Known about the structure:
The protein is an alpha/beta fold. The protein is built from eight helices and eleven strands. The protein has a single domain, classed as Alpha-Beta Barrel (TIM Barrel), CATH 3.20.20.80. An eight-stranded mixed β-barrel has the order 3-4-5-6-7-8-10-11. A three-stranded antiparallel sheet has the order 1-2-9. The longest helix has 17 residues. It is globular, with a radius of gyration of 18 Å.
Amino acid sequence: MQRKSAFIKFITALLTGVILCQTAGCKGFFDSNGPSWDYNSEINKAAARNHKPFTGAISSDPEYDLPEMTEPFKVIDISAWQEKVDFKAVAESGVDGVILRLARYDMDKDTYFDRNYSEAKKNGLMVGCYYFMGAQSTDEAYSDAEKVTKLLDEKKYELELPVFYDVEDEHGSLSGNISSLDRQLLTDIIKTFCETMRENGYYTGYYSTVSFAEKEYYPEQLCQYPFWVARWSESVSAQLTYYVWQYSATGSVPGVNGECDINLCFADFCTYIEKHGYNNLSK
């Protein structure tokens, strides 16, 4: 009986650690003190099934309301680093979607993007993409958005998940070092990319680690753009609103060579994107 009571307390703590939050006009999920989820844990599968429903709104503007959703779904993100992925095995493992690397600031299209896109679609997975940024100014962010738009317009790729701006430092590389930028400038760079992409017909958000978001820019100014957060450590809490949670950078998924990132998605992006005709999907 004592062990059962402890189990219930653990589940309660886990569920209340990830709660709905509204700060500075943002609504979404944030993690106040809960540990990272191991998706293979039966305890955490139960927590996912009983997760509080997503309420829908991400700003005071109804234009940005996302449909209500009662359960998160599993998404992986991959690039040419994983080489040839068996997407049939990925889909059969319980993964619902994939976020593919489209390109980087210092390279053209990922060499595996077209293959990954077609194979993921063939096996019924939702698809989104990301672009690794290196912009040092809002002008360069605008150029990034134009580059991404051109790449996506080439074959009218249909994306059920957002396009994400990958906001992280290039580990000391001069051309990709964005942590040296003024905090407001980096915020404006992210906003410029996301807004330009929206104007070009692509529903767009941004990605970074918890620490980078808290120290290097102002996420509270970016509420209208869905935040994809990377938080892998049990010792790090995410006092931020987010809609996709990358909870592992060393995951193992059938069909994927080596390790890959694994995420939980808390928003029904597909319904919203289709409704508004973004990402080459019809209204």
